User: Fold this.
Amino acid sequence: MGSERMEMRKRQMSVQQESAVGGTAPAQQGQPGQANPRGSNACCFCWCCCCSCSWNEDRDDRNRKASYDVKEGTSDCEDCPKPTLEEVRSWGQSFDKLMCCPAGRNSFRQFLRTEFSEENMLFWLACEEFCNETNKTTIEERARVIYEDYISILSPKEVSLDSRVREAINRNMLEPNSHTFDDAQLQIYTLMQRDSYPRYMNSPAYKNLLNTLSEQSPES
Assistant:
């Protein structure tokens, strides 16, 4: 009986050891198998996050740049002397006289800012500089900047253009030249003349400027 009990005990211990070994082996095999997907998922997750973060950072930088251009960068307008009474009066005669005067453009630009349409003046000014450019490389670079800033539908400063002009610009961007934005510039000029200019002439900004200069004039 003692020998049989010893034999049974050995068998039980052997079964327990085999069970222990059999139980840990799959677990050990399962851990490397699980580690790989986790590692793979972690890598994919990190890669996606890194790409997403870098893209978001680039987008944030672009948005901050655009925001700076509109809100802070535009606080300094064109350098020009203080307008005379005669000049301010001439602004009321025609939109062309207003736009030909640097002080007139500055005053009108500040008014457009209050109407959240300053991008029209910014685009027009950018086109004025662009059309005088002669270097081919510079033209291509500036054309891309103007397109991204004022033509692209993704830009916060996109100007309002009809489909015909927009399609023409898209074609011209294949080989941009100094006249790429001529039609668009004229369309925005006309828009400001018909839409914003009459409101500016009736605005307190223009009337107060005119009254202030009239009071300071020796004639008064």
User: Anything to note?
Assistant: The first helix runs from residue 2 to 72. The domain at 83-216 is CATH 1.10.167.10 (Regulator of G-protein Signalling 4; domain 2).
